[in-house]
Amino acid sequence: MLTPDRRQVELRAVDLDGTLPAYHQARMVWEFVMGQDLSAFYAQIRVADGGPGHAATDPRVLLALWLYATLEGVGSARALDRLTERDDAYRWICGGVPMNYHTLADFRVGHGELLDRLLTMNVAVLMSEGLVTLERVAQDGVRVRASAGAASFRRRERLEECLLEADAHVQALKREVEEDPAATSRRLEAAWRRAAEDRKKRVAEALAQMPDAEAKKKASEKEKARVSTTDPDARVMKMGDGGYRPAFNGQFATDTQSQVVVGVDVTNQGSDQGQMSPMVEQVKARYDETPQDFLVDGGFVSADEIEKATEAGCTVYAPVQKPKDASRDPYQPLQGDSPTIAEWRTRMGTTEAKKIYKERAATAECVNALARNRGLRQFPVRGTHKVLAILLWFALVHNMMRAVQLRAEASSTA
């Protein structure tokens, strides 16, 4: 009988580079990173070679690790840390550079502005190559579960009580140390104080967010407004399955011809109302160019938003609401319509407009679906600015993969 003998010694001569096939995706990610201008990342490093302190980790390694992890659907810094020790692809990216989850977690959410700049630069390069035109852009929202439980939401009265309790706890810990320094060990005492002060800070942030939550309620229901003490920026939203959960509403704008993401935003508003004109302005600010056509679904439609987008230079393609009177033609202008709204109604009744509008689902919704497949189902971080950083990682990964395919298609037809 053949049985395993795991005590036998084996000598293997294997280099890291030999562990991955020539066309492995990790190599593609590294090639993408090496082609980026990361001078802004390096400028933030405060440790000088040969000086005091630990040597800094190369931003190229951290950027490549998170790009590849996002591509593979890995969303936890601790899980990524483990993979850098036992998975050949992640070990190859590290190339012997030691890693820890604190460094990984801090890097993922600590460079939102630089990630945003990378997104702009990469799309600009694709535009210079003629692969992205901004001729037609589609926008869609994706509601993603927040890192907060429903039970963490409190009304104003209860939040004020929690703040008093948290403050009393902090003061009690301070008095305990002053009266009897040996009552607890230094490390335990410091941990308790940090936890108590963090609790107090989060409750104070929740109270600061209360006016915004109250503003979204009817006048008669303002006292029902609630804010989470876990993630004050999150709001309870209706999700795709019909249930209500704490979430954020991510916004992606996509060039329909290339399916490249050209704009990213996030809001804690449950509906998409009011999100079209800010995205139009964002795209214009990024690339100094306004999309010719802008495609959105019915959730974005309002007269004010259509007016703003049209004034910015876009032709809006969005569905016209069905009239209550079934005998009335929805594409005929109404008496109170402005010239812009009347033109929009008439335009959407044409065969050409209906054909153009079909491109929205094939692009914007496709981007959302791909992000879901890569793990965008619940944010592992808290706070709007950190959530936006996560969305930017997904947009960068999506555009990286699209760029590879677009360039391959362009070279094959050249």
Name some characteristics of this structure.
single chain; 414 residues; 3 domains; 6-stranded mixed sheet; two-stranded antiparallel ribbon; 14 helices; 11% strand
- Beta-strand content estimate: 5-15%
**Molecular shape:** globular
As a percent range, the share of helical residues equals: 40-55%
- Mean pLDDT equals 87
Number-wise, the strands total: 8
The major pleated sheet works out as: 6 strands, mixed
Give the SSE order as H and E letters.
HHHHHHHEEHHEEEEHEHEHHH
Summarize this entry quickly.
With 414 residues, the chain is an alpha/beta fold. It has helices spanning 25-34, 39-43, 59-71, 77-86, 88-94, 101-109, 112-128, 156-179, 186-215, 276-287, 303-312, 339-348, 351-373, 384-413, and strands spanning 136-145, 153-155, 226-228, 235-238, 244-255, 260-267, 293-295, 315-317. The chain contains 14 helices and eight strands.
